[in-house]
Amino acid sequence: MFFHAHPDDEALLTAGTMAMLAAEGHRVVLVVATAGERGLADVEPGEELARTRTAELYKSAAALGCARVVLLGYGDSGLSSDGGVAGDRPDNAFIDADSEEAAGRLAKVLIEEEADLLTIYDPAGGYGHPDHVQVHRVGGRAAEIAGTPVVLEATVNRDPLLKGLRLAGRFYRFPAEFDVRAFERAYTPGDAITHRVNVRRFARQKRASMEAHATQAAGGEGPRTLAVMLKVPGPLYRLLFGTEWYVRRDLPAGARLTHPFDHWPRS
């Protein structure tokens, strides 16, 4: 089971792993906390955007081979300009949900599915979105309630990301509000990552998942991350996006495993 905050998060962080596990015959279930109705898009925020992004989510899930999609129905908490919690969030915002109640709802799905693996996010929620931090809290507690044996924190290797951003900064002028230094605290350093999953064989499915989220490739005054990713040509796409990273907290940081179900130590 893959637990995400908004539609399109699965495409960016775990799509290759999902497609790989589905191809191996596993039942893959995608659970999403919100419909992403407050995300930046050309569609007006609110119910119309929620409907559109939900349709995009199902299209993405189909491309990845998911057997089931579950929407928990919480409101998108939004993101303030300084990267914190938005002040005008809805009454049912995911960030304001009772963590134990939300964990119970997720645990019910885990038990229904007899899930043997759950993915969440790292404690910082990757880049710090409040809903992503809540996914970490709620998902971790749900796994405890359900007795799910394997919990993986989906993340990004911070080390090459920082190198790439600093190199890009020599040739490209980032917007004034973009602070490369913020990524010094985002995601996870390489020496703490336990799983490096090679998903290059599933680049086609991962790209199709990204393409499904058309609203997230537009909107705003500058280029969107998803739009930039989709412009990368095939061979380079497989190189840049062909690895997905995870942390399993009950394993040593130097485990360096290559499949979600790998054991440590290896037999």
Automatic annotation (TrEMBL):
GO terms for biological process: glycoside metabolic process. One of its GO terms (molecular function) is hydrolase activity, acting on carbon-nitrogen (but not peptide) bonds, in linear amides. Pfam families: PIG-L (PF02585). It comes from the Bacteria. SUPFAM superfamilies: LmbE-like (SSF102588). Keywords: Zinc. This is N-acetylglucosaminyl deacetylase, LmbE family.
